[in-house]
Amino acid sequence: MNRWISLLLVLLVAAVVAACAGLPRASAPESPSERPAGAALVRPPTPLPRIEATPIPAAELSTLGTAEQLRLVEIPRRDPRRLTERLNPELGTVPVTAEPKTYAVGDRERFWVHNADSKSNIEIEADLVYQTGVANVWVQRDQPHDLGRIQRSIDRFSDVTYPRLVETFGSEWSPGVDGDLRLNILHTTEMGNNVAGYFYSADAYSTVVNPFSNEKEIFFINLDFLNSMREYTVYETVLAHEFQHMIHWNQDRGEELWLNEGLSEYAQEVAEYAPDIMFAYSFLADPDLSLTTWSAEPGANGPHYGASYLFVAYLAQRFGTEFLSRLVAEQSNGMVGVDHALQSLGSDLTFDDLFADWVIANWTDDPDALDGDGRYGYAALDLREIDPTIEHRQLPVAATDASVFPYATDYILLDGDGGATFNFTGATETRLADTAAPDGARMWWSNRGDDANMRLTRQFDLTEVAAGTPVTLTLDAWWNIEETYDYGYVMASADGEHWQILAGQRTRTDDPTGNSLGAGYTGVSGDSETPSWVSEVYDLGEFAGGPLWLQLNYVTDDAVNTEGWFVDNVAIPAIGYADSFEGDAGGWQSEGWVLTDNTLPQRWLVQVLTFDG
């Protein structure tokens, strides 16, 4: 689709140095004066890798700004098994795998299904209705289904989709937690109204780690969604979508959700299905949508799927699907992962360079433009035209205020006679969250990420405090944490190895999802729908007379994260310790946490395009 007319097109894009997901709109005045078939095999599974992080002394972080710290720290990957062992030393070594089971068609099994509407787990029974060398196919007991059509689709998945995706993205964990080379696909009516399918890594751990684990390599299909279809091709593309998530979890834990979802949307093309640009159209209808964010509401993500799909499709067109293989294998995530994958190709391009070209391609959709190398359009897609965010048909015009989300785009159309001068001024700072330190300028921030476990640790000496003396820890906290999926914990230890969770006045112990480790912070702080600062007190009496390690431990699950957890004014009055972190925060060791004044540099990308026609 060509769009060559006489106009001046200004692309206004806000970008930040790091951690841009969920940041507020930036504003600026715009002022122009113008697998094999047959029996399944069973072999001893290989253990999952343990992901460690190197602690960084707070004194080092205290000399750096927020942006520099974000470039320095690495977000540790979550290791649920190791967390369980540290909090429950009486368990010893928690098993990596479950007892292997061998299934045959006609078998019945009990499963836990996560319902996204109620945010709870529901136990069901399901029958094994079909089996290939690649998959065990389960259907919820006594639910209507078209077995013949399911069988044909699963055959196609086993013969085409599975090998194509493994070749491109790598393998799932196999034989995995259950010791079975077959993966499992469960069709159920209990997933909620807005979810077509899901993969959740909790099922890849022992029930000792998560009581709702199915202890299988498994993904889930909404049976109500399937039964409503006249054409099963969409079902088959969902199989490809969820299988990419399963592979990606094994290859690269903690991938940023926007990129993971973009790869899953593109997986249907890897599996040789035609592109589906329905979601892309919803994004192009309003491109002032951050590429690098995701909504916590499942039904609100259509435009996000569209944006992330288009970006991955653009990467595949410019660099080939082999680049996607590098991207999935790359252990850095999100924008940094794209940068590293580009470097592995020997390219000098960066994520920001590609983003700048991509937003032009979305407007022009002309792969033959200029040198014809596909830089400014899509060869395999026919996109809808983008409506300008702001349009001026007569020049000159007065100064105009506008705003744009990070890594989103405002398209400003200037169409008039004669020359024009475009003047731009934009905000120079943005914030991590809508808050401020309760005392001074700085506070600790947990950072944010998926499948992550950020830790902030310090050792204290309580040997001069007589045993039996009341000892308390106090701190101020602000949090916005994905409710009942992600948690923040205050932990204490007498040896720095085995830990216990300290209960505060606002910690919660309910565990509808199985993700909670104990008394933790989740949802929002304070008593309203928006977070506010609160003060918490914890009992340290049992540590009097000995050493004490304190740890702020933030644990997130596979997908969706919010602003996270801020902490300030930590004190242990019994030993005269108090710190508002305006100095060097001596003694603290960070694994992912950032000592911040809540400000980041606001960068801008302004591109001017002129078209002849």
Structure report:
This protein is of the alpha+beta class. Among the domains are: 108-332, Neutral Protease, domain 2; 435-597, Jelly Rolls (Sandwich). 23% of the residues lie in helices and 26% in strands. The chain has twelve helices and 27 strands. It has helices at residues 58-61, 66-72, 80-87, 147-169, 223-227, 233-251, 257-270, 278-284, 302-319, 321-329, 334-344, 351-364; strands at residues 7-16, 26-32, 56-57, 108-115, 120-131, 135-140, 183-188, 197-199, 218-222, 390-392, 400-404, 409-414, 422-424, 429-431, 443-445, 453-461, 472-481, 487-493, 500-502, 523-524, 534-539, 547-555, 564-572, 577-579, 589-591, 594-596, 599-611. Strands 15, 17, 20, 21, 23, 24 and 26 form a seven-stranded antiparallel beta sheet that branches. Mean pLDDT is 90; it is low at 1-8, 17-24 and 28-50.
Summarize the structure.
The chain is 23% helix and 26% strand. It is of the alpha+beta class and 613 residues long.
List the helices and strands and how they pair.
Blueprint: E1 7-16, E2 26-32, E3 56-57, H1 58-61, H2 66-72, H3 80-87, E4 108-115, E5 120-131, E6 135-140, H4 147-169, E7 183-188, E8 197-199, E9 218-222, H5 223-227, H6 233-251, H7 257-270, H8 278-284, H9 302-319, H10 321-329, H11 334-344, H12 351-364, E10 390-392, E11 400-404, E12 409-414, E13 422-424, E14 429-431, E15 443-445, E16 453-461, E17 472-481, E18 487-493, E19 500-502, E20 523-524, E21 534-539, E22 547-555, E23 564-572, E24 577-579, E25 589-591, E26 594-596, E27 599-611
Parallel strand pairs: 6-7, 7-9, 10-12
Antiparallel strand pairs: 1-12, 1-27, 2-11, 2-13, 3-25, 4-5, 5-6, 8-9, 14-27, 15-23, 15-26, 16-22, 16-25, 17-20, 17-21, 17-23, 18-19, 18-22, 23-24
